[in-house]
Specification:
The protein has about 300 residues and is of the alpha/beta class. The chain has 3 domains: about 70 residues; about 160 residues, Isochorismatase-like (Rossmann fold, 3-Layer(aba) Sandwich), CATH 3.40.50.850; about 45 residues. The chain is built from 13 helices and 6 strands. A 6-stranded parallel sheet has the order 3-2-1-4-5-6, sandwiched between helices. The longest helix has about 35 residues.
């Protein structure tokens, strides 16, 4: 006997039970019962009995039905198929462009003029000058071309800071003829294009004008542009933050001098590692103290015979 026949017989049996109880209790409701109160009590008992039997019957039918379904329906397992577009490895071009490539980079130092320094309020001028010098030295060390420029060297904005010539002696200087944006100067733009490099690292004063204008123009022409924020200065915090938001929305990548130095260096396992270490000393004076204390500890350890120094 299968489950379906069992369910049918159970329903018939339940129907007979309910019918028998009804006939049994209906005999108590016969008109010759003299007590109305007893009749009302019997009526309430009958309704309760019918309700209980109906509930029991429904539970039984559901149990038999579920059992039949469980035995006749095969078990289904959820199989998760990963999206290939999510787990695939990045392309070689994407990996190559993740960090700065010294062979495809050119550093553009825009309008670091002594007159404009007097208007900078978002960063201490001492830090601005020191950071710009380290950026120029890092480019020189990594053999990355450097272009310096001034909008009008003989005007009130003043000459370029003299430290740049010492930090990057091989830099190309382009005096402009009054163009606010260096990208509007034909000589400046020509030198950038002739370099053949597509990654531009820019810093300058003011950030909102002298950096933002050529950065936006170069980005629109297909260049990959980085803006070095701590080697740039502006008239106020608001001007700097507003410019940062504008440039990032346009796809320009904001960085700091330390990031540029690290991306150009990439490893300490290189012959000029000590020269890069000196740059960190200039950029972060506290780091110099760390190096000096470590060197002194090494010297003291070596002076003790039989002690292993690592």
């Amino acid at each position: 006997m299968d489950l379906l026949e069992t369910r049918v017989e159970f329903i018939d049996l339940t129907t007979k039970v309910i019918g028998g109880e009804n006939r049994k209790m209906n005999s108590q409701w016969h008109p010759w019962n003299s007590m109305k109160r007893c009749s009302r009590f019997n009526s309430q008992s009958t309704r309760r009995m019918r309700t209980r039997l109906l509930v029991y019957s429904l539970f039984a039918i559901c149990a038999v039905t579920f059992s039949t379904f469980a035995q006749t329906t095969p078990t289904r397992r959820l199989t998760v198929v990963p999206d290939p577009s999510i787990i695939k490895e990045p392309s070689g071009a994407a990996k190559a462009g993740a960090l700065l490539d010294p062979a495809d980079t050119i550093v553009l130092l825009l309008d670091h003029q002594t007159g404009l320094f007097q208007t900078v309020k978002d960063v201490p001028v001492r830090d601005l000058r020191a950071n710009t010098v380290v950026l120029a030295k890092a480019a020189e060390l990594a053999k990355v071309p450097v272009i310096t420029t001034a909008s009008e060297p003989n005007g009130p904005n003043g000459p370029l800071m003299p430290e740049l010539a010492q930090a990057a002696p091989s830099a190309t200087y382009v005096p402009r003829k009054g163009e606010i944006s260096a990208w509007d100067n034909e000589d400046f733009k020509r030198i950038v294009k002739e370099s053949g490099r597509k990654t531009l690292v820019m810093a300058g004063v003011w950030t909102s004008v002298c950096v933002a204008f050529p950065a936006l123009q170069a980005k629109a022409e297909g260049y990959k542009v980085y803006a070095v924020m701590d080697a740039s200065g502006d008239m106020s915090e608001m001007a700097s933050q507003t410019t940062l938001a504008r440039m990032t929305q346009a796809g320009i990548i904001p960085v700091t001098v330390n990031v540029v130095v690290c991306e150009l260096q990439r490893t300490w396992a290189r012959p000029d590692a000590a020269a890069y270490g000196a740059l960190y000393h200039d950029l972060v004076p506290n780091y110099r103290a760390v190096a000096e204390s470590y060197q002194k500890a090494q010297e003291a350890a070596k002076s003790q015979p039989g002690k292993d120094v690592k």
